[in-house]
Amino acid sequence: MRGRAVIGVLTGPIGIGKTTLCQRLAELLQGRGLTPGGILAPAVVDSYSNKTGIRLRRVDTGEERLLAVAEGDLGGPRTGCYSFAAEVFEWGMSVTRQALSGDADVVLVDEIGPLELLRNQGLAPLLEELVGIETPHVLVVVREGLLTAIRQRLGRPDLAVFRVDMETRDTLPGRLLEWCLQGSPSPRSG
Question: Which of 51, 130, 131, 139 to pair with 148, CA 20 to 30 A apart?
């Protein structure tokens, strides 16, 4: 029987590149023969580089679905200027649960935000599941201002915290890879 999961939190300011950093980490893991899983939340931007929405992307296959839009109504919860699609949250939770069940060596959960931590909506059900999981490594992405809230919600004093800023964002993927390799299974054969 495996021990309790190692959970890390990637945090930093809005727009610093947390999702891009997670994508780079997934590529590094694959290069080492490990299987990353979970979800990423890349921004949708217009031709003027304005953020107009959010997609949800499967780490393992690259499949994407539109999660939120700044203008319009996707029928799910709203926070700030965004309207979310409830069915895409369900899909993202299903993808993440599959990865947590053993389909992945490292699970990425991007992003847990105010909707989850302050309103208990969106991906919030996943937070309860992270407390007792046994997957080797899970990396949860939160913005800087929500670090205390995620610590309290997970109730895990052993969280590894990785802060990304302009000085660390180029070297952090390598540090995260080293963290993921500690105690990870041998690369899968086949």
Answer: 51
